[in-house]
Amino acid sequence: MSATGLTIAVPRGALMGGTLDLLDGLGVDTAEVRSNDRKLLFEDAGIVTMRPSDVPTYVEHGAADIGVTGKDVLIEAPGRDVYELLDLGFGRCEMVVAARGGSEPLERALRRLGRLRIATKYPRIATEHFGRTGRQIEIVAVKGSVELAPLTGMVDGIVDLTATGKTLAENGLEVVEEIVTCTARLIANPVAHKLKAPEIDALVERLRGSSS
Amino acid sequence: MIHPIPAGTRDVLPDEMRELRALGERLRATFEQAGYGEVWTPMVEYEQVLRTGDERAADAAYRMFDDQGRVLALRPDMTIPIARVVATRLSDAEGPLRLCYSAHSYRVVGQRTGQQREFLQSGIELIGVPGEDGEVEVVTLALSALEAAGLARHRVGVGDGSLYRRLLTALEVPGDRHRELLECLTRRDMVGLELRVDALGLARDARDLLVGLPELRGGPEVLERAGDGPAGEALERLRTLYAALEARGVADRVILDLGLVRDLGYYTGAIFEIYDPAVGFALGGGGRYDDLIGRFGAERPACGIALDVQRVHVAQAAEEGQR
Fold first, then answer.
1. What was the ipTM of the complex prediction?
2. Interface test with chain B among A57, A73, A75, A84, by most B beta carbons within 10 Å
3. Which of A80, A82, A194 sits opposite B157 (nearest CB)?
4. Are residue A113 and residue A166 in the same domain, yes or no?
5. Could A83 and B113 be called an inter-chain contact, meaning their C-beta atoms sit closer than 8 Å?
6. Which of A136, A189, B163, B301 is spaced 20 to 30 A from B72 at the CA atom?
7. How many domains does chain A have?
8. What range does the domain containing A16 cover?
9. Cβ separation B280–A194 shorter than 8 A
10. Residue A139 pLDDT more than 80?
11. What is the pTM for the complete model shown?
12. Quick check: A6 and A199 in contact, CB under 8 A?
């Protein structure tokens, strides 16, 4: 068992560094995780690694007691029965609407064609945002680089996550609307939250102390 | 060729069926020995009847029409049908009623979440015994049924379904904000809860109570840490209940949980949830529902607990693997 007494789901990708830094601060030995990027399960450290969108799944099923993932993942996959315990503050990104040549082409498409075509990996967030603002859209679900979709004329705009706006700018896209700010969140399995309350509370307390 | 079955349902073959039967029989025998008689109700009910029991319970997984065009629904739990039976067929029965069941219920679950839409419940309902006497009886009986099933590490979370609502009222939080705060708690969104509480601009003490109280869970120290304050009445009830559970010798299985909520709306006081370290989901739950039978025309205090037999089976298999 690890230093925290818990099994922790750590997201690979952009949030991994920040998560491992936090765990270092809690006395978890993350050296092996940092040095081996093919291995997925680290029993001594009590760490399992996975893509961020899988973290709520593993935590909901109790395969991990707690985990770290982005707020974007939690919004896009609601109904997962997990506790959202803490805003960890790092990994700050904006969920945005971006388009070529600003908002004017979007308005024109909406006025003349009655709907916007939007490419995204976040169909739920996109549907909710445009629904709330009273605009009809057609979602085009893509898996890879969303920025490509408007460049080829397939869609009018995209809904995507951006940290610095660099990739958008390099592809000639402008942010036209900001939907929501997303940061890394600490989540917990509901049963572990009760059965391992002392371990989880101790961890939350220390993270609160270090993040504020 | 593939002939699919509806999502969230499953076929059971002899090896598993034998084990499920044996498990169900052990649970039922424990209930029967304690004086709980088994009942059976129709799998389909008029939707209107389910809605009388609970608005959200009427949000059934399957609906259909009968030949008269009336809307039928598969029952989402057994508590509402039993409340109907008690208020109608058993309205003349004197003294407490002890009923148990083993039956399938049907609920909406997320797609591809690995959860069941059709699930087998084994449970008890104790009608006509108010207060902690009733609650202690159903909790201890559910615990011993699980022991009879071979579980050793199970725990019961005990809370009060009205606690947070009372706290909001006592702290004079505007009524139009209650719903979103309660929804955060039900969704287990503690970050969202804190944000919304902060936005209320309350005094420090009140703010800390609204954020901190639902995070308290554990042994009797929880009640000490909660103090008295605005939630005093509900806390007092929990203290009495805990003392009674202690007197029955089951305190070491109890986790007091001031943040516990159940998503069905008919609970009026104590609520319960059953956990086992081998399963990531609660094995079952229940609580006190003193108003429910009254909605069908004959007011009677009542409480009950239901166990998800397939989840208990997983815990049982894990327990056997431990030995």
1. 0.88
2. A84
3. A194
4. yes
5. no
6. B301
7. 2
8. 8-91+183-211
9. no
10. yes
11. 0.90
12. yes
